[in-house]
Amino acid sequence: MRARGRWVSGAAALVALVVIGSALAATAGNRAAQAKKPIVIGWAFDSSGNMAPFDNPALAAAKLRIAQINGKGGVLGRKIVLKTCDTQGNKADVATSCALRLLGDRANVIFTTCDVDLAAPVVTKAINAGVLAVASCIGTDQMGPKRFGAKGRLAFSFGNVAQDEGSAMAQYAWSKGWRRAALATDTVIVYFKDVVKAFEARWKQLGGKVVAKETYQSGGGTNVQNAVTRLNGVKADVIVTSTAGAFGALSTFVSGLRSLGNNTPILAIKRAHGSTKGIVLSRIMERFKNVPTISGNVSFSAKLHTVFGRRYRVIKIQNNVPKVVGTIVAKVVVKI
Question: Are 114 and 55 spatial neighbours (Cβ–Cβ below 8 Å)?
């Protein structure tokens, strides 16, 4: 089955935002004296580099949410104070300095940028100091013990874990009657790679066939068109990739295929008793199951510190006009 246009499977919430209401704001029942102290949120963000389109909206939404909470008296009488630091394109030395500065500001939680490799300097400093490190939209299971070891128990992300997202994409493609998939992997960041891996794993579980595998690099790479040319010579029901417009390859990838006359569908994708200690918050968050937040329902586990089980919007883009055509939830969080 073929369909004209481009299909994009996107998260029901594009950016996962501050969840103070679910963790910090949900900490209840401590001494009155402690209730007078502010809760300090540190935020290391990229204001102008590749991650700016992800970091800036999350920070802006956080400011709005904090103002709402403080306007209602804060958390048990404790106002929330936001301290920020610009990593200037996520330069490792600047990011490390930001982490130290925010820790010096006595941050109770530090939010970081939306890629686990780029976030590593800040995450490492935070968790080594016993402070919870949170990303608004990292989409890989590496934001946790898998990458950062035992101390990684203090690292979480409110992005959708790639195993869940790729699984949902495969599930949707299968529901459309598509059976032959061509895979195109943007190898620039872990998340892009893991989404395609997860799609492949779930696709094969469902009985689908992979007819081609290609790789390319966004962010200044010059081999996108080469991948497009090779994919154009393959008979596939759907072409699957994971990349981002901000990285510069998505428009080239899609327009390249369409200019060749290839219309194959493309899937691109109160419980801690007043404590603000990282390990206490971590234990609480590992027990989150469908906890309502401003970015949708959130679930974590001891193994997965990145969100799974969230509902995704399916958006069809045809002639540059987007239209929501449904939603989907992954039935399986696949292993990759």
Answer: yes
- The structure tokens 């959708």 sit at 160
Prediction pTM value = 0.76
Residue 112 parent element (H or E): strand 109-112
In angstroms, the CA 19 to CA 34 distance is 21
Q: Where in the chain is the domain with CATH 3.40.50.2300?
A: 6-11+162-268+312-328, 32-161+274-307
pLDDT at 109: 94
What b/e readout covers 22-52, taking b as 16+ CB neighbours within 10 angstroms?
Answer: bbbbbbeebeeeeeeeebbbbbbbbeebbbb
Model confidence band, residue 25 (pLDDT cutoffs 50, 70, 90): very low
Tally Cβ neighbours within 10 Å of residue 72. Answer: 8
As a whole number of angstroms, the distance between CA 199 and CA 230 comes to: 20
**CB burial class (10 A; 0-12, 13-18, 19+) of residue 162?**
buried
Q: Which fold has domain 6-11+162-268+312-328?
A: Rossmann fold (3.40.50)
CA distances (Å), 27 to each of 35, 281, 296, in order? 11, 9, 20
Q: What pLDDT does residue 294 have?
A: 64
Q: pLDDT at residue 234 above 60?
A: yes
